[in-house]
Amino acid sequence: MEFLPDLLDPNARWVMLGVMAICASSATIGSLTLLRKQALVGDAISHSILPGVCLAFLIFETKAFWVLLPGAFVSGWISLRFIDWISQNSRIKSDTAIALVLSIFYGLGILMLTSIQHSGNAAQSGLDKFLFGKAAALMEQDGYTFLVFGAFVFLFVSLLYRPLRLLIFDRDFALTTGFPVFALELLLSVFTVSAIAMGIQAVGVVLMAALLISPGIAAKYWTSDFRVMLFTSAILGASGGFLGAGISLIWPKMPTGPWIVLILSLIALISAFLGTRKGVLRQYWMHKQNQIKILEENILKCFYHLGEPDASYEQKRSREEIQARRHFPPSRLNMGLKRLGRKGLLASQGGGACSLTEQGIQEARRIIRVHRLWEIYISKYMHLASDHVHEDAEAIEHIITPELEKELEHQLEYPIKDPHDQNIPYAPKK
Amino acid sequence: MELDTLWIILTGSLVAACGGLLGCFLVLRKMAMVGDAISHAVLPGIVIAYLLSHTRDSLLMLLGAAVFGILVTWIIEVLSKKAQMQVDAAIGLAYTSLFAIGVILISAYAGQVDLDQDCVLYGEIAYVPLDRFYWQGLDLGPRTVWVLTGLLLFIIAFVYWGYKGLFLTTFDEVYAFSLGISTTFWHYSLMGAVSLTTVFSFESVGAILVLAFLVGPAATAYLLTDNLPKMLLLSVILGVLASISGYYLANWVNGSIAGAMVVMIGLEFLWAFLWAPKHGLWAQRRKARSLDLSDIHLEG
Q1: Does residue B204 surpass a pLDDT of 80?
Q2: How much is the pLDDT for A257?
Q3: What is the model's pLDDT at position B300?
Q4: Touching check for A126 and chain B: CB below 8 Å?
Q5: Mind telling me how many Å the CA of A221 is from chain B's nearest CA?
């Protein structure tokens, strides 16, 4: 284990902690911008920081972090204002405004940087580290700075949790109630720009966007709770920082920043696939479940319809009878009958025939009732002709809840006949 | 004027012309940031092709870059449609992952890959005249100029013959669909062309600055006219002007030529943003004021 001695080195330990802190704080701040639908604004700011850094260097002729940071902050800030200004005052859309500000500020930065490099000023070497990040060259003091900043971010988010939530989810309401929206937005921008100015040192200009948004993207697939999401994204960010920095400790040839970003991206992709909230697999599963439910309910309805003419609901029905009444693909029908049997809604009568159980009759009656109530409802309130209401009811019957059913019965005053002059089956009074 | 100066300005102008023509469609389709994503995402394609072929200008490299350029648009599409991700989040996630893979590959095979990060981030247009193209022992000028000329001809042909498809799928997708024009086909063709432009411009201006060449002149032209053919022409002219003036700016401050060209593109935009005859800030303010006055008159 070559890994351990490296971690035992206090310098490496502080750097590791610092990287984790800056990843967690960027993830938290980035989640806020992500939820405000400004995922790429952070990308623009991180590219736009360059001219400010160069200007600060030109004026003060030092690479000290505390001198360059205000420069970075100022140009990041100006770029943010430019994006707003352009997209609000012209026909240019915000995506074009972002791309434009990003590339032009960056171009200006490159022009200044190369001009400084060619000027023969010896102090400049290493200034370009702002471009690529220099996680490997981070020092103990950088670690402290990141930790302090992390603490500030934590304080900011936890103290202003409620106002932030209001700003993100109901900005218009906040405005009308005289809530200090602009002050809060200003504060949020200050934190965003500072997080970017610091994070760039770890991962570089291009990849900073990932540090901000990837953990938030991942977290959104697991929870819809704002507080949990912020917390999850901070933890995911910190883990990405730990693993990325760990990899470059084990293989010194490997760059830290890109590995952090790659790990965060993998986490986000896995979450998008497996996430319990809107994940691809989850969506697929829900879709399948829904289809099965619809199939089962349609089969039950079919049994009911077959028994309706002579009120012989408990009569056994063969598959041919069912198929003659309503066509199902044979394999689907098989599956549906089996599932209904297991649920105790159907009983097998031998030779592939089945009959409704007492419980099955109740359930079939409920579906038919909801279907017919809905037909009355839309023909009454939407004035649709009676031959136009069936299709709609066919879809809605599978999703009407017991509460809605009660409401329908109540509003329609317990009707007896549907628009096709068929009886509405109510549950027998006990 | 020295011959090298001419070559450099010509290179810048060619990149600007290719970018401007395609950029108009990106801006109008609100896909500027997809252009950004593509320009970053071609990196792993270029590195992989380089590792396989060990030369810088191979067909393989073009192929690798084009594949990754189209791959990133496809990933964005899948993430936003299938996984219901916000489009901007999908763009950010997709391109940073691919770019990170590119940088990791460069570091892992350092020494084998003659590509450094500086080249990726800002290119070096000043080296363009050094790499000559020889034909039967005859010096025909810089290779890059020839390659870019070929690209420009290709893009002009693409825009000329594809004009109807590009136009309709940009402005009226439903109508285009009813005519049997495939939106998907034109979408991916345009993305493929943007990837090619990025790759060819890579050595001269780098992955990030090419975005300015794509979006800048097109956005400026968009403020100056409402007519698409005029917009295409204007964006080319604006790009060429920025290349010429940018060269002299770079000479003056002794800095990156590509960076200076981009700064000129920015100044052009600023000028149009403030003073464009119809859509500029000044014109709009004046219009708004005259409306206010007429309101008062009516009320009085």
Answers
A1: no
A2: 87
A3: 42
A4: no
A5: 9
Query: Which ipTM value was assigned to this complex?
Result: 0.89
| Distance (Å, whole) CA A41 – CA A55 | 22
Identify the residue among A48, A92, A214, A253 best suited for mutation to test binding to B, counting B beta carbons within 10 A and taking the highest. Answer: A92
Side-chain half-sphere CA neighbours of B100 within 13 A: 29
Rounded to whole angstroms, how far apart are CA atoms B212 and B60? 26
The answer to whether A321 touches A306, Cβ cutoff 8 Å, is yes
Q: Do B107 and A255 form a contact (C-beta atoms < 8 A)? A: yes
Max mean pLDDT among A319-323, B116-120, B225-229 falls in: B225-229
Torsion, Cα A108 A110 A111 A113, to 10 degrees, reads 120
Helix (H, G, I), strand (E, B) or coil at B46: helix
Chain A residue numbers with beta carbons less than 8 Å from the beta carbon of B281 are 89-90
Provide φ and ψ at A312, rounded to 5°: -100, 65
Six token digits for residue A98: 């972002």
When comparing pLDDT for B207 and A77, which is higher? A77
User: Which ranges of B112-179 does DSSP label H, i.e. alpha helix?
Assistant: 117-122, 143-161, 163-171, 173-178
- Portion of chain A with pLDDT greater than 70, in percent: 94
| CA neighbours closer than 13 Å in the CB half-sphere of residue A184 | 20
**Amino acid in the structure at residue A324:** A
Cβ neighbours, 10 Å, residue B112: 11
What is the Cα–Cα distance from A278 to A284, expressed in whole angstroms? Answer: 9
Give chain A's length. Answer: 430
Report the pLDDT value the prediction gives residue B109, as an integer from 0 to 100: 83
For A309-331, give the DSSP string: TTT-TTS-B-HHHHHHHS---HH
Question: What is the Cα A219 distance to its own chain's centre?
Answer: 7
Backbone φ and ψ for A125, nearest 5 degrees, come out as -60, 135
Using CB atoms, pick whichever of B32, B101, B250 lies closest to residue A96.
Answer: B32
pLDDT in tens, A256-301: 888 999 999 999 999 999 998 888 899 999 999 999 999 998 999 8
Residue-wise pLDDT tens digits, B124-168: 777 777 777 777 777 777 888 888 899 999 999 999 999 998 999
User: Which range, A45-49, A165-169, B15-19, has the best average confidence (pLDDT)?
Assistant: B15-19
Contact A213, A33 (CB under 8 A): yes
Say yes or no for a CB contact (<8 Å) between A213 and B284: no
> Tokens 């697991």 label which residue?
A222
Looking at residues B282-290, what average pLDDT do you find? Answer: 84
* CB contact at 8 A, B79 and B94: yes
Cα distance from A122 to chain B (closest Cα, Å)?
16
Between chains, do A107 and B84 touch, taking CB under 8 Å as contact?
A: no
